[in-house]
Design brief:
The complex is a heterodimer of chains A (219) and B (439). With 219 residues, chain A is α+β, with helices and mostly antiparallel strands. Chain A has 9 helices and 7 strands, in the order αβααβββαβαααββαα. Chain A starts with 11 loop residues before the first helix and ends with a helix. With 439 residues, chain B is mainly alpha-helical. Classes of the chains: A alpha+beta (219), B mainly alpha (439).
């Protein structure tokens, strides 16, 4: 074992918040100075350079990362470049599903769009994107499976339920916060910026990747 | 709603509201010419014809038939009178009010409104206003309601202006912005102006406490008669509800301005990078939308698109749970865990904090009474008293800060701090001398 100093574990704050913080981080949550995470955020923020980051490196073999988006900090557990550290064992990780990737990128885009304002979004805003936005046909095809002038109430409800379920998972990850779950109004949190960390290489090389995948398709 | 009113509205709405842009422009143009003194209040038919030509030229519609346009404008807008062998026309009060509202909606003159000075005169309430219910009703109708209308109108205009400007700000993030530095600076100026307006509104509303407290203090005066009290109570509630709502709206406007201004100031250095990155995210989204499929109700990304992993706790049973239902007939849920000890510790902390705040307020009152009596306060002597009574340095320091704060906001008081050290017996404390007086 390395000679690591984990003095912070003896602090009063650690006794109160360490377990909550650890469970949240290991369940994939992005912790930020918002809502019910505020206390554990301050605990992590205070001890990040003071042993906590080292703790995860030594015991979990994974980096505890401090990200920033629009000058707001957020914390999360990442995987090392090779493998998944101790989180690779016993199904302690999960693939980000396809529908979540596409909705995540959509919310990231809205987050960046709203650089100058509060990141509040409602179901009506999303509906407008799906039905009146510049990519409405693609959205309708993906969500409903077909393009029609009007959809039945059952079809509409099924899409709404699907989106709600994705957003609920995003809330669990700390990417959004629901102001009202029934009305589907929510605020996009700085943690959504994690997608930039996950897909940064893809975003930065999108032109090259698009060409490469197009050629793959043709061949 | 009154059914007769609805019927007459549906019958006459075509006459009440200008039905096309020619009609609207003509009325507003005439109003503008009168306001500027280009034509008189009672203008001639020739002036009407000239204005119709102005409208036609502006709209580039060639000739507009005067008769056709006149038919579309009813007597709600202007009245024609004959004097001798000449015809004179004047705009109705309704037309003028409509023009004023429309112009203000389209081109709000926010900068010209000096709300603060207006309300300094209109909102305050004096003793006579609350001496009897008729006076209070008069004040409410003639001072409060017009002031309320102005505040709400001004707030709505600010809200519209901010929404519009924030939408314009989004254009900055597009890659084809010419001279972004100049554009950012011009936006910073615009938001500075909006910020000043909002602060003006907040300052204006500072008068509310004085007004609300004065009305509340007169409660006893109106309890003699039930009818009078009901009327008083209605007015009081109306005023309180208004201030509560408007406070919320103005602070939310202010927050939006502050956020946008802060971001604008930080944008200069990273604008190019932000624009490029934003464009790439949009491209990625478009790529995913165009190349993904809908399969059996699920979205499928292109096969070659990289998948990523996140940490996750699987909540699953390791084995099928063995339940003997004879022990579970009573479907009572488990009580949630509740940390009573933690709750009690938090409660005690809260009470201790309240105690400190209460003691601080009491000491400040005592010292202020002394100052009001004309005494000069030597703070170190009071510090001794506070320490002896409270045994808490926290209260003493809070009182000290409270006094300095009061001094900063008051106009008359004087505070003198000399860097002469005074050592006190309490703790290991060294102070400077601080004297506070009323003049």
């Amino acid at each position: 074992m390395e000679n690591a100093n984990f003095e912070f574990l003896n602090s009063e704050l650690a006794a109160k918040y360490f377990i909550d913080a650890d469970v949240a981080l290991r369940s994939g949550r992005h912790i930020q100075d918002f809502g019910s995470d505020q206390r554990i955020f301050h605990f992590i923020d205070e001890h990040y350079d003071n042993g906590l980051k080292e703790f995860y490196r030594v015991f979990c073999h994974v980096p505890l990362i401090r990200g920033t988006a629009d000058n707001d900090k957020y914390y999360y557990l990442d995987y090392p470049d090779e493998g998944k550290g101790k989180l690779g064992k016993d199904n302690r990780s999960k693939e980000l599903e396809d529908d979540k990737v596409i909705f995540g990128i959509l919310l990231l885009n809205i987050f960046k769009d709203k650089f100058f304002e509060e990141k509040a979004v409602s179901w009506e805003d999303l509906e407008q994107i799906f039905k009146e936005g510049e990519n409405k046909e693609s959205w309708q095809l993906l969500l409903f499976g077909k393009i029609k002038p009007n959809y039945t109430p059952a079809e509409e409800q099924s899409v709404k339920d699907k989106v709600r379920s994705i957003l609920k998972d995003f809330e669990r990850l700390g990417w959004i916060y629901f102001n009202n779950l029934d009305a589907m109004t929510f605020v996009i949190l700085p943690g959504i910026d994690r997608l930039v960390m996950l897909y940064g290489d893809v975003i930065n090389n999108i032109d090259a990747i698009e060409n490469y995948l197009k050629n793959e398709k043709l061949s | 709603m009154d059914k007769d009113l609805l019927i007459s509205l549906s019958k006459s709405y075509t006459e009440l509201i200008p039905q096309n842009e020619e009609s609207l422009l003509l009325i507003v143009w005439l109003y503008y010419k009168i306001e500027k003194g280009y034509i008189s209040e009672n203008f001639e038919e020739r002036d009407l014809d000239d204005t119709i030509e102005d409208v036609a030229e502006f709209l580039q519609k060639g000739q507009i038939q005067k008769e056709v346009l006149s038919r579309k404008l009813s007597s709600h807008y202007y009245i024609t009178e004959s004097r001798g062998n000449k015809y004179y026309v004047h705009l109705t009060v309704y037309a003028k009010e409509l023009c004023r509202l429309i112009i203000n909606q389209v081109q709000p003159e926010i900068k010209k409104l000096e709300l603060f000075h207006v309300f300094k005169r209109t909102l305050p309430i004096n003793d006579e206003d609350i001496s009897e219910i008729e006076n209070l009703k008069y004040w409410h109708k003639n001072n409060f309601l017009p002031a309320q209308k102005e505040i709400v109108g001004h707030t709505e205009l600010l809200q519209l202006a901010i929404e519009e400007k924030i939408l314009e700000l989004r254009n900055l993030l597009k890659p084809d912005v010419d001279n972004p530095k100049e554009l950012i600076n011009s936006f910073i100026e615009i938001f500075k102006g909006l910020e000043e307006q909002t602060i003006g509104l907040i300052n204006t509303l500072d008068y509310k406490n004085e007004t609300v407290n004065k009305i509340k203090s007169a409660r006893e005066e109106f309890t003699c008669n039930e009818e009078i009290f009901t009327e008083y109570d209605r007015i009081q509630r109306d005023i309180e509800a208004f201030f509560e709502n408007i406070d919320y709206r103005i602070y939310s406007i202010n927050e939006r301005i502050q956020l946008a201004s802060k971001r604008l100031r930080n944008l200069l250095d990273s604008l190019k990078h932000k624009q490029m990155f934003k464009v790439k995210i949009e491209k990625l989204l478009q790529y995913l939308l165009k190349n993904s499929n809908h399969e059996k109700g699920e979205i499928r990304l292109p096969e070659k698109f990289p998948r990523k992993y996140l940490p996750y706790f699987y909540q699953k049973f390791l084995a099928i749970p063995k339940l003997d239902f004879k022990f579970y007939t009573n479907a009572k849920p488990d009580e949630p865990d509740y940390d009573n000890e933690h709750e009690e510790a938090e409660r005690k902390k809260g009470i201790a904090l309240l105690k400190v705040q209460e003691s601080t307020a009491q000491w400040l009152d005592k010292i202020n009474d002394e100052i009001a009596d004309g005494s000069k306060i030597q703070f170190e002597e009071w510090l001794d008293k506070i320490m002896e009574t409270e045994g808490s340095l926290e209260v003493a320091i809070n009182v000290c800060f409270g006094l300095i704060e009061q001094h900063n906001t008051s106009k008359g008081g004087m505070i003198a701090i000399s860097k002469e050290e005074v050592t006190r017996k309490h703790l290991d404390l060294v102070l400077w001398k601080m004297q506070i007086s009323n003049s």
